[in-house]
Write a structure and sequence with these properties.
The chain is of the alpha/beta class. The structure holds adenosine-5'-diphosphate.
Length: 809
């Protein structure tokens, strides 16, 4: 190789190269864009065409200084050059390796003094062997797919000196810039060969691996393509034959529509939607909505119904089998069923009866269809746990119909009842249609729970939609926004339940046939627990029969000391707790041990923990300034203690404790009554100028029945002022007027049962409430003494016999 420079220690322009090396003996096309480089190339072009090419240590530096450059570079000769918009493209041939000994100028371009470095060219066997090995390896690499300039490859293959080969290889090797610089800086050809052999070996390995992977990928790819093609082919064939997946689904849907027994109008709608679906692309998001809609349409029962027979004897049997007591309620239900039975065979529409009685129903208002169901809807009113749901289930059982229950508690949105329109994301039918679908028949017994908890707000009035669903005159074509087609609810047996009637909108209440569940006496609870709940919980907990022996007295103890409720829900829970504990003991012990668990009153603590309620009333003494009232709440009847304290002041009435607004008013009325009667009652004169009266209700529930605590408040005030105790075991209820008249109140049955439960002996009731005692259990009637009064004076006579007063004011 002619490596010699014209002058071995000459000054030459220097061009920094970001990350490339032009090895001596090789050629390369370079592009020079940086100003300093362009100027250096131009200067070189004009004088000897020689330039020093030297690599930057860091390719990212734009404007390198001499210290950013390696010290060893190559002198290159510009073979050809072309300007191109401020840049220069030049073919440069490497001439010789040089060391840049000093920089003589930096501007306008680098000029350095260079000293040529000559390689040692070994002439031993090893070098020769390496020479051959490297040419073979390179050939192998190219064979495996190494990309390199074809001309260079041909040149190498046609033979060259060891030194030239070593530089050519360095130029084509797959190495990092710093590794190339290292190769350049080696001054022994043999050493260079050795390094290159290592690099090339690695490269060949990688190439082999790549090839292997590529072959595998290729095979896999080919397999995939093949499968895809085949699958497509199958699809096409199936499509031709008309039975691909999609088609299958459409066919199934069409079949379901045919079999669903839909009314003509609905069927047409369903078919139209199905046509729309078939025309939709599989990827159209709307397709899934249409599919869901069609699923609903075909799954709602259009003609599936349970046998529609009413056998009163059977019904009575079932009701009695499932429930203890509730005689009056069962009777009312049987009457209702009897009417239903007669109506189902009668041809005369209900409207005819309305016409005859009112004589005003115009033809226009007459519905097109006479409804077959009873014209009213049953409504079970009562506290929780009194058997409303379970009577509903029994009705379904006795009629051989399905039973569904939907709670309406807390709904405020009309859409909850009537469904969302389909344009709504995540739209669904309302609860009525959901319940019907759940039942699977079009004539289930449908219990709508908690209709007193339905609210209304800006989203529409759910009760209006409810009315439409429940009203037998409209509900043969109930419209659910989601379903879009009318649904006939006229054969559904609706039963509604609630805890109180006050909050039900009047329009809805008008339609309801109210059946009241007042709550159970202790004795009734005892029998329900013994004969029904005990057995039910035993089976639920998987405890074998006769393993638990719960003494009657123990059961009564649970009722008295662990529960305080109108219904039997907590009682059932306590019984369940006993069985749970027993079940655990059985499971822990040897499965075969046939131990029985005898539970006596004394054992209850271990099973149920400390008692929750003490029968406080009987144990306490009569006190001045206290009276016992009766209240009615959503949870049934309850007793209520009123406390009155007097303190120096000016006749202010202070009210604290669990007092609702209405109760505050009745306290005012009671106070006015006492003030106006102070003389007759022999109370301290002008007490209202010297004393403040503080009325407090220490514990118990907030009464929901308005002013019925008046009598009890007045009694407590009189007791406080007269310093004479009122009888604790005399409970009273009644609204009072300013003049002391005692007015009729509500919830008598619940209150009386609560009084009985609490161990009260005497109950004072307004005279006009006498009629309400009719359906109170006999046991209660015999245990209690009733006093019917018209005036507060009579109340005081019973509650405070020690009080002497004249009847005149
Ligand atoms: P509600 O619907 O009024 O809240 P449930 O019907 O859920 O009450 O009654 C609670 C539990 O008490 C149920 O297990 C039910 O079977 C039982 N139960 C209620 N009343 C009676 C009864 N008279 N005879 C037998 N079991 C009853």
């Amino acid at each position: 190789m002619s490596t010699s420079l014209d002058n071995p220690n000459q000054l030459l322009p220097v061009v920094p190269i970001r990350d490339g090396i032009v090895f001596p003996g090789t050629e390369m096309i370079l592009t020079f864009g940086r100003q300093r480089s362009v100027k250096a190339i131009e200067a070189a072009q004009n004088a000897g065409k020689r330039v020093v090419l030297v690599m930057q240590r860091n390719p990212n530096i734009n404007d390198p200084t001499p210290s950013d450059l390696y010290q060893i570079g190559t002198v290159g000769e510009i073979v050809q050059m072309m300007r191109n918009e401020g840049e220069i493209n030049a073919l440069v041939r490497g001439i010789s390796k040089v060391e840049l000994t000093s920089y003589e100028a930096v501007e306008p371009f680098f000029v350095a003094r260079v000293a040529e470095i000559a390689d040692v060219i070994e002439d031993d066997e090893e070098t020769k062997a390496l020479f051959n090995h490297l040419t073979n390896e390179l050939r192998q690499a190219v064979k495996l797919g190494k990309t390199m300039d074809f001309l260079t490859f041909m040149n190498i293959m046609s033979g060259m000196s060891p030194e030239t080969l070593s530089y050519h290889l360095a130029g084509v090797m797959d190495t990092k810039p710093s590794e190339r610089q290292e190769l350049l800086e080696l001054n022994s050809v043999k050493a260079r060969f050795e390094k290159e052999a290592a690099y090339l070996a690695k490269e060949v390995k990688v190439l082999e691996l790549e090839k292997k992977i590529a072959t595998k990928t290729q095979e896999k790819f080919e397999k995939n393509v093949k499968e895809q093609v085949l699958r497509e082919r199958i699809k096409t064939i199936e499509k031709e034959l008309g039975d691909d997946d999609e088609n299958k689904e459409f066919k199934e849907l069409a079949d379901k529509i045919k079999k669903a027994g839909m009314p003509q109008e609905v069927k047409e709608k369903a078919e139209k939607e199905l046509r729309r679906l078939t025309q939709m692309s599989q990827y159209n998001p709307e397709a899934s909505y249409v599919r869901t809609y069609l699923d609903w349409l075909v799954e709602v029962p259009w003609n599936q119904e349970s046998a529609n027979t009413v056998n009163l004897a059977d019904a009575e049997k079932v009701l009695n089998q499932d429930h203890y007591a509730l005689g009056k309620i069962k009777e009312r239900i049987l009457e209702f069923l009897a009417v239903m039975k007669l109506r189902s065979v009668s041809d005369e529409p209900v409207e005819k009866a309305e016409k005859t009685t009112k004589g005003v129903a115009s033809e226009k208002n007459t519905p097109k269809r006479g409804s077959k169901s009873a014209p009213t809807i049953l409504c079970f009113v009562g506290p929780p746990g009194v058997g409303k749901t379970s009577i509903g289930k029994s009705i379904a059982r006795s009629l051989g119909r399905k039973f569904v229950k939907m709670s309406l508690g807390g709904i405020r949105d009309e859409a909850e009842v009537r469904g969302h329109r389909r344009t709504y994301v995540g739209a669904m039918p309302g609860r009525i249609i959901q319940g019907i679908k759940q039942a699977g028949t079009k004539n289930p017994v449908f219990m709508l729970d908690e209709i007193d908890k339905v609210g209304a707000d800006f989203r529409g009035d759910p009760s209006a939609a409810l009315l439409e669903a429940l009203d037998p005159e409209q509900n043969y074509a109930f419209s659910d926004h989601y379903l879009e087609v009318p649904y006939d609810l006229s054969e559904v047996f609706f039963i509604t339940t609630c805890n109180q009637l006050d909050t039900i909108p009047p329009a809805l209440r008008d339609r309801l046939e109210i059946i009241r569940f007042a709550g159970y006496t202790e004795d009734e609870k005892f029998h329900i627990a013994k004969d029904y709940l005990f057995e039910k919980q035993r089976i639920i907990h998987g405890v074998p029969a006769k393993v638990v022996d719960l003494a009657d007295e123990g059961l009564r103890e649970i009722i008295r000391q662990y529960t305080r409720e109108a219904g039997v829900r907590n009682l059932e829970r306590e019984v369940a707790t006993i069985f749970r504990k027993v079940a655990k003991k059985i499971a822990d012990a040897d499965a075969k041990s046939k131990k029985t668990f005898v539970i006596k009153p004394a054992d209850l603590q271990t099973y149920l923990g400390p008692t929750k309620f003490s029968s406080s009333l009987a144990e306490k003494k009569d006190e001045v300034g206290m009276s016992t009232g009766l209240a009615w709440t959503e949870a049934g009847g309850d007793i209520l203690f009123i406390e009155v304290a007097l303190m120096p002041g000016r006749g202010t009435l202070i009210l604290t404790g669990q007092l609702g607004d209405v109760m505050k008013e009745s306290a005012q009325a009671a106070m006015s009554y006492v003030r106006s009667r102070f003389k007759a009652l022999k109370l301290p004169e002008k007490f209202y100028q010297k004393l403040d009266v503080h009325v407090h209700v220490p514990e118990g529930a907030v009464p929901k029945d308005g002013p019925s605590a008046g009598a009890a408040i007045a009694t407590a005030i009189v007791s406080a002022l007269s310093k004479k105790a009122a009888k604790r075991l005399v409970a009273m209820t009644g609204e009072i007027t300013l003049r002391g008249r005692v007015l009729e109140i509500g919830g008598v049955k619940e209150k009386v049962i609560a009084a009985h439960r609490a161990g009260i002996k005497d109950v004072i009731l307004p005279k006009n409430n006498k009629k309400d005692l009719e359906d109170i259990p006999k046991a209660v009637m015999t245990d209690l003494k009733f006093h019917f009064v018209e005036h507060m004076d009579e109340v005081l006579k019973v509650a405070m016999p020690s009080l002497k007063f004249s009847t005149q004011n």
